[in-house]
């Protein structure tokens, strides 16, 4: 079963409070809850913070999970680069402002999602 979406993103913010505001804006755009699992400064670019976020998914089939994740992802940015499905049923996607993706939530520079079958 695909239980959750793991999101990772790099955002422009000075502190955790700013990151929480970005996550609140993300939650308003998504059709599902989202919560911060971790927050830290991005080592490569100190003006960015790296967030790990979690959203519930609860899909049984990989097809339903992929559709649900893409519908959520498209509310945040377009386009996304999708990786090939893995041997364990996992799949992932990446959107980057440097590669031409446009984010609907200000402050996000890069974002990825990762979903895996937990059976």
End-to-end Cα distance, whole Å, is 6 Å
The biggest beta sheet reads:
6 strands, antiparallel
Cα-atom Rg, whole angstroms?
Answer: 14 Å
- What is the total tally of β strands? 8
SS content category:
alpha+beta
Distinct helical segment count:
2
Residue stretches low in confidence (pLDDT < 50, at least 5 long) are none
Percent of residues in beta strands? Answer: 35-45%
Query: Shape, please?
Result: globular
- What's the SSE pattern? EHEEHEEEEE
Widest sheet: strand ordering: 2-3-1-8-6-5
Mean pLDDT: 92
* Helicity, as a percent range: 10-25%
Summarize the structure.
The protein is an alpha+beta fold.
Describe this structure in words.
- With 119 residues, the chain is an alpha+beta fold.
- It has helices spanning 16-29, 62-76, and strands spanning 2-12, 35-41, 48-59, 77-78, 81-82, 91-96, 102-103, 108-115.
- The chain has two helices and eight strands, in the order βαββαβββββ.
- The termini are close together.
- The chain has a six-stranded antiparallel beta sheet. A two-stranded antiparallel sheet has the order 4-7.
